[in-house]
């Protein structure tokens, strides 16, 4: 189905389809904004007390000369008050206007410089796209009305928008009609495949398509053309217009032969044309055969169409658990990993045959033997400041911590837990036109991860905003929620466009879809690496719910499905074992005890809460309708609004706490990747080794015994 954004745009915005780009929400002519919130461009002449007009970095103040209140940019910003930009970010200095824009001075706004699209283009100056007009081919930019199609006109050799049958208009605006187009016998408005039929009484002419053709009489197509009968071409063919026959016909793609309705592989076609190699193979030129062939990559064997991974025994690669040995197995006639005495397992993940309650010596000297309710047993836990599985503990890396990172508009910003006038925080980074909806941190390596739903990308950077890099792109639809399992070294995300929950390694490799059924509008997601659980919200307006499953996707169940409005994002309080969420429909923040499943409301009412995080006894949250971060004691009270640092603009999205150390949590994947070759996913009582998607038989989860 064609991708659209009609349901997400603001009241005074429209969904614009750009060539070779995802659809974007753009404010309608006469309005300015980000496409989500649009206000009238001419409102700078009105009294700002009447309307909420001012930019987030402006104030509504009295102007004695005009005898009305106007928007004035705050110190450090330039603009007309409706739109304010930081002086240091002026395009005069940064030269950051779009390719089809110029940096110009507004003499009426304190000589502020701003980006303005060139004639013939519209946009915010940073992204400018060609104006929608009937002279531009709709095959280049999909600007037809929703009740129109982009059609090729053989008479003039151009593509243009045509209203569907039963509607009239120019293709950009279509309204109901009788479906009749007036004509005279002397006019040539009717199609060559139509005729002007004149009523003998009224002498009024109407264009009608001839027998065997469909249309309004002005445009007529054969009723068997492939552009009329959708999906009539072979999957290896395209529907193209033929100037010779003046009709649309199915034509086989390069490398295939047939009539277009049925296409067979050409015997001489190679992988260079067919692109039919296995994911673990490369299409390369064979000097012996003198043609391109599929060749399995290093470490794989096969014919290139099907490649299997070469199995390397543990005597060649050291992949056994530290509590295992690589020994020769006569039954398997090969070397296999085997747990040493006192430990049990598959050799890749070994656990003590006795608990630490019976023998505390099995714990590392920097670990304690503690009872875990969810596991109903005693386990070894690394002490604060150390990481590992309890049997092996190493010193945890220290990072600058105890502060907040949040996203606003297109930016990531930092804020102290107790902001002051001297230190309100600072801007970390900005990526033009991104919408950073999901946010989480890898507390082990000191990295922040975020998802951009506008472009379908997941990024990461250092805590200070440096070394920003792309982690995943090309396979994402709309990644709204994001969570980091810092113990297993995996990243999880929800995709509201694909209605899936997916996982990969922290570097974006080994991608796998683990849940793809029963999701409507998945948004927030959090993980508990210690219990091996993940929790996510589904804000379907008809059936909102919060669900839970193991981190491998098994054991899925509904946790909350009553008394919910629009559950946005989630947060886990590891100290109290609480799961909390923001509900924008019921305007409140609520928690559930993961032991007893008892629910309680933390705060109400709120305007439109989006995300939340915990630090000690305080809870912090963001709100789409409030230009502050809210802070409140988790026991209740009046929220304390925290003023935002300079550098951001627009809606507040996600927020996360930056700790000095990771929480004291371990699982079966924390050492040696749990013995798994690819993905190691905790399942509550142990771990599941999984292969990435589209890998088939080439992935061996474990070396067989």
Automatic annotation (TrEMBL):
LDL-receptor class B repeats lie at residues 446-488, 489-531, 532-576. Disulfide bonds join 5-15, 54-71, 144-161, 190-207, 233-250, 277-294, 320-337, 363-380. It comes from the Eukaryota. Keywords: Disulfide bond, EGF-like domain, Glycoprotein, Repeat, Signal. Transmembrane segments: none annotated. InterPro entries: 6-blade_b-propeller_TolB-like, Cueball_EGF_LRP_Nidogen, EGF, Growth_fac_rcpt_cys_sf, LDLR_classB_rpt, NELL2-like_EGF. Residues 1-39, 44-85, 87-129, 134-175, 179-221, 222-264, 267-308, 310-349, 352-392 form the EGF-like domain. GO terms for molecular function: Wnt receptor activity; Wnt-protein binding. The keyword Ribosomal protein does not apply. Signal peptide: none annotated. One of its GO terms (cellular component) is plasma membrane. GO terms for biological process: canonical Wnt signaling pathway. PANTHER family: EGF-LIKE DOMAIN-CONTAINING PROTEIN, VITELLOGENIN RECEPTOR-LIKE PROTEIN-RELATED-RELATED. This is EGF-like domain-containing protein. It comes from Oppiella nova.
